[in-house]
Write a structure and sequence with these properties.
The protein is mainly β. The protein contains no helices and ten strands.
Length: about 110
């Protein structure tokens, strides 16, 4: 069973940056799209960024211009560079295929607060 492990979250001040990482135990991202999702307290999980197997990217309007998604198919890893963070970015962040078909990992907590 493929496992997903997210890392890189933490507490950051408004305007700060974080780089999230995603590692998959299997090669699920080799021929599939990959997405970064987040779930804020009391809200549904939402897709914030996606990257196709060919490298095309799309972003939610709320993060466009601030977040950058990338992937390394050979290493079965992905990253989400997050800049100019604000309090509305506070959430647990998850990676998965796009659309998701693997069991969700634990996620990594991102807290933006002064």
């Amino acid at each position: 069973q493929v496992q997903l492990v997210e890392s890189g979250g933490g507490l950051v001040q408004p305007g700060g940056s974080l780089r999230l990482s995603c590692a998959a135990s299997g090669s699920i991202f080799s021929h599939a799209g990959m997405g970064w999702y987040r779930q804020a307290p009391g809200k549904q999980r939402e897709l914030v960024a996606r990257i196709s197997s060919g490298g095309s990217t799309q972003y939610a309007a709320s993060v466009k211009g601030r977040f950058t998604i990338s992937r390394d198919n050979a290493k079965n890893t992905g990253h989400l560079q997050m800049n100019s963070l604000n309090s509305e970015d506070t959430a647990v962040y998850y990676c998965n295929a796009d659309p998701p078909f693997v069991s969700w990992g634990q996620g990594t907590q991102v807290t933006v607060s002064s």
